[in-house]
Amino acid sequence: MIKYVFFDFFGTLVDYNPSIHPDYNAPLAFARRAGSEISESASNAYWQMAWDDLDAEAVRSGREFSMYQVAQRYWRSIGAPPIVAGAIDTLIAEYLDAWTVNVSPAPHALECVADLSSDHALAIVSNTHHPDLVPRLVRQFGLHTSIDRIVASVNVGWRKPHPLIFEAALREVDAAAQEVAFIGDNWDADIEGPRQAGMAAVYVGRATEHRPSATLKELPGIVRSLT
């Protein structure tokens, strides 16, 4: 019997477009405050390179990386100019403030979690690079009244679909795998990974011929039909 529902966050409960860059260029502003005369195009390239290199390492190892690592790598790439105490923290805060402008609740997300929370314990299990990002957005969008726990990869140290993040999530709610349905939009991270861990899984991503997809509006009925 399904007693717990684990949700992915980005692309599942909230919509975002990773290809849209924030209007405010926080890395360039950081470089300017440090006295660097780097061009905007070069700054953007170094910032993206920091992300790409760390992400490639994470894909290979399953180890999650943090925004602090991204910012540190970017700072070294632009020549490690002298910075004041707290400058890295300011860069991260400004970047996240600008990036989250383009994040919004997915259609029917609020209704879905409110419905399921009436007879299931709900948790979010998210790949994310900053420990406060998902809790902040959960509160901002009013999801906090239905969500019991948040398990972030940056806190666990492992990202989906590595087995250790699913083990951590099960420990967090004191659940057995067969009691959990995992909901997500990424086939490898949110469907194959949970299934290999012994959970049921429901795909809400882009449908294909071999990967049928549910909507959040349909989800409560689907979860309650699982045995």
UniProtKB/TrEMBL annotation:
Gene3D superfamilies: 1.20.120.1600, HAD superfamily/HAD-like (3.40.50.1000). Pfam families: Hydrolase (PF00702). InterPro entries: HAD-like_sf (IPR036412), HAD-SF_hydro_IA (IPR006439), HAD_sf (IPR023214), S-2-haloacid_dehalogenase (IPR051540). GO terms for molecular function: hydrolase activity. This is HAD family hydrolase. Keywords: Hydrolase.
